[in-house]
Design goal:
This protein is an alpha/beta fold. Helices cover 28% and strands 28% of the residues. The strands form four sheets. Strands 7-8-10-11-12-13-14-15 form an eight-stranded parallel beta sheet. Strands 5-4-3-6-20-21-22 form a seven-stranded mixed beta sheet. The chain binds zinc ion. Zinc ion binds next to loops.
Amino acid sequence: MLTTNNSNNGSASTLDRANNNNDDSVTLIYANRLIIKKGLQIHMGYLVIDNHTGHVLQFGHQRDYKQQQQQHKHTTTSNSSSSSSSEQKKSHFLSCDMACAGFIDIHNHGMGGARTVQQYWLSDHTLERLVEYGTTSVLASLIFSLDDEAKRIMEQVIDRLKGIHGVVRERLAVVEGIHAEGPIIATNGGLPDAECDMNLDDFKILVDSMMPALKVMTISPSLEKQCRYERLQYLLDLGVKPALGHDTHADEESILTSLHMAAKKNCQLHITHMYNVSSFHHRKQTLCNFGLATRFPKLPSYQGIEPPTVEIIGDTVHVHPLTLQFTLDYKGNDVALISDAIMDAHGGCVEYNERQVEVCKKGDKNYAVLKGTNTIAGSCSNTLQIFHNLLRDLHMPVDKAVMMLSENPARIANLHHVGTLDVGKRGDVLLFDENYNLQHTVIAGRLSWSLKN
Ligand SMILES: [Zn+2]
């Protein structure tokens, strides 16, 4: 296997195709309206991906590419010995109206393929489905419980995820790692009871069992305050991103202490699904207050720390479109939109920690509730639906919507090998028609899904 781009954070992307296939072709993509790049929109753009490494090789304006090809033809006919092999590679051609980097969902519990949510990641069902929704990278999100059978399944799931994380496999979204939603959780929301009072030794055993796949862990500051923040410190020491959340009791002191600890490690903290299972108060500073900040007041206790990044469920059910709009308008540079999915878009009925989850409808949107209650358990959403919500309901400019679904989540989860279409990043590309309908999903240069299939 070929391991690529492992520069500064331990994130790796492994191409299993390189094991048995010396593919020296390239994939050439023409976007006839625009290619969205980080901080840049290229009109009539092109993109070339090297299919051996799976990396973006070059990009620019189509007219420049055509000129370059003509010059090359001219050079090779006048002096055949000068032809370089790189310019004679066979190319696979794709065209579209708009192209952008693949979407990255850093909070997704899976979308089916098993009787219970906890078993989802034992199969490739979710990864097969995700490419249809433009999700090229996902953090497999795990929940914890006190139930012995659920714990046994969790061990199997962790083993499997450790085996496949970072590996590019044909026609499947890439599991980049794990987002552990717990077990140090103060306010359950839809989550089952877990060992939220786990001691440091047991916590270390659990965290170590998920390494090196563990990228993000949701942890409640109000519980950390009760035990000297030792578990939070352990995550920071390992380079796992702590995401403060599931904590309606978190006070100013506990959040400030967490932020100061992170600052010492040059880590920008994160907040798990802001607004859901967290609160705002104009005098008492809680998780949403900190999550909404883009800078801090000049108070002694706020010196030397930076505001956290946040993730928000973008299905417009968990968070009202009005709240979503002003939050994204204000804080957008530090927001990742997430699905928090536990089901596929067309719904169904599954078991979630011995409780039945069923689908409810709000307008044209589906969402999942614990049967017999009003508790929202997760979403039936996906990154493509969220992208359309942003464009159609919130009238958001397309480049900003793309940023919150690719570049920002990659940065937050330290997935530096994906998230933008820069040279050297993995060639994960979404190709859209003029109405932003997804036509093709490309992962590491290979076609992973097409609308016509
Ligand atoms: Zn979740």
